[in-house]
């Protein structure tokens, strides 16, 4: 078995040699063939990288593998999770007794390892199996996987997708899906972050029950009114907004992390006085100040106001006077989310964390010593040797234990304004 370091050294030398080569030396038709060879080599390297991913191990003080992989490779956490998931499906598996099993997608794995498939081909095949009903037998599944893997080696992904759609119809001609099949597909997710104009795009896959309930609600509250210039989609949007607005802050909803279920909004005194700029929610959503003022009039939302120059808290509006809730609101306003470096968990889903000394070790619950951490990162401090402390500027610094391949520091993910020139925000 060769040395991995020697192999990587040879690969880097080959890449440099390839980068220095002049493709113009080849006749025009042969340049396409050269690029095809290059593409195959890239795909093979990706397959090898995925295979090596399966050998990564989580050890004491080490966060979950996708989190470390994302930070070390500087890729998004969703991309890291996808690589781990792909590796689980496209590389051989080993049982607890040491028995080696074929990959979950064996024929696809062979074509993938040979460099015949792009990641888009794999996405099409994965989606095909994800959408199949559970009543299909293993023989049909095996034949389908063999067919798709074979066609994927000669087709573009968009062409393969048409074959996959036809094959799905062939295997389930009556369109029979169980309740479990439908439940597995249900979901709602935002498609990326907010756009430049502040708007957001989401994708909803509704089960029959939700569709029926929404139809009933929208029939009443999205109906056109006299002189109503809104389009049908606009009326439906406003009807959904009214549905949620009427529920937020209702005591019957209980609490989430010690607070009523409502919005936590942060702004600065300067922006509030000017009626311009943006407020930030504990979920990371930017809201224009004019919208925030309009929203705050009829509702019991929490609004924390800071001095935009000093970062000092100036005013805190609240519907109930609860000290612990007040502290949490100020933490949500100040940190906006988990303070561990690179963590993307927003404030609504973060916990209060004692930054200097944990409560069970004599720490005090003072606002200057409290910070926010998601459940996973909180456990890193409690059980795995990570330490935190507050810096003079009020930010929380995280330090990993020795041997963990992550760099400590503060989290800037929830505060992109810190990277903008002439930013006055200090919190």
From TrEMBL:
Top-rank lineage group of the source organism: Bacteria
InterPro entries, per the entry: DUF222 (IPR003870), HNH_nuc (IPR003615)
GO MF assignments: endonuclease activity
Every DUF222 domain range: 33-334
Pfam families documented for this protein: DUF222
Transmembrane segments: none
Keyword annotations: Endonuclease, Hydrolase, Nuclease
The protein, known as: HNH endonuclease
Species this protein is from: Mycolicibacterium pallens
Lineage, opening ranks: Bacteria, Bacillati, Actinomycetota, Actinomycetes, Mycobacteriales
């Amino acid at each position: 078995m060769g040395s991995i370091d020697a192999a990587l050294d040879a690969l880097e030398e080959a890449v440099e040699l390839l980068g220095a080569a002049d493709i113009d030396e080849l006749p025009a038709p042969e340049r396409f063939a050269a690029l095809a060879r290059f593409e195959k080599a890239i795909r093979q390297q990706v397959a090898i990288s995925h295979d090596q991913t399966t050998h990564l191990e989580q050890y004491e003080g080490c966060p979950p593998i996708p989190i470390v992989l994302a930070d070390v490779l500087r890729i998004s956490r969703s991309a890291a999770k996808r690589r781990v998931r792909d590796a689980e499906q496209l590389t051989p598996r080993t049982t607890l007794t040491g028995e080696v099993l074929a990959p979950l997608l064996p024929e696809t794995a062979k074509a993938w390892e040979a460099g015949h498939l792009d990641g888009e081909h794999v996405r099409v095949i994965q989606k095909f199996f994800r959408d199949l009903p559970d009543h299909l037998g293993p023989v049909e599944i095996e034949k389908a996987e063999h067919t798709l893997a074979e066609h994927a080696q000669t087709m573009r992904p968009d062409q393969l997708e048409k074959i996959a759609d036809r094959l799905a119809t062939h295997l389930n001609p009556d369109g029979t899906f169980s309740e479990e099949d439908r439940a597995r597909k249900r979901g709602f997710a935002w498609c990326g972050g907010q756009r430049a104009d502040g708007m957001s795009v989401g994708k909803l896959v509704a089960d029959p029950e939700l569709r029926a309930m929404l139809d009933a609600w929208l029939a009443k509250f999205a109906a056109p009114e006299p002189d109503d210039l809104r389009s049908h989609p606009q009326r439906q949007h406003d009807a959904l907004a009214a549905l949620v607005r009427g529920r937020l802050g209702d005591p019957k909803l209980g609490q989430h992390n010690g607070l009523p279920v409502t919005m936590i909004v942060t702004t600065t005194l300067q922006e509030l006085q000017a009626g311009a700029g943006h407020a930030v929610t504990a979920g990371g959503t930017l809201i224009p100040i004019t919208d925030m003022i309009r929203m705050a009039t009829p509702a019991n939302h929490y609004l924390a106001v800071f001095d935009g120059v000093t970062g000092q808290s100036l005013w805190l509006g609240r519907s109930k006077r609860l000290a612990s809730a007040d502290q949490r609101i100020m933490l949500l306003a100040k940190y906006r989310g988990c303070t561990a470096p690179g963590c993307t968990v927003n404030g609504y889903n973060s916990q209060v964390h004692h930054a200097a000394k944990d409560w069970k070790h004599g720490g005090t619950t003072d606002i200057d010593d409290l910070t926010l951490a998601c459940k996973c990162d909180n456990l890193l401090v409690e059980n795995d040797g990570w330490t935190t402390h507050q810096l003079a500027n009020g930010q929380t610094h995280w330090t990993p234990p020795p041997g963990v391949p992550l760099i400590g520091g503060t989290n800037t993910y929830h505060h992109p304004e810190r990277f903008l020139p002439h930013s006055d925000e200090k919190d």
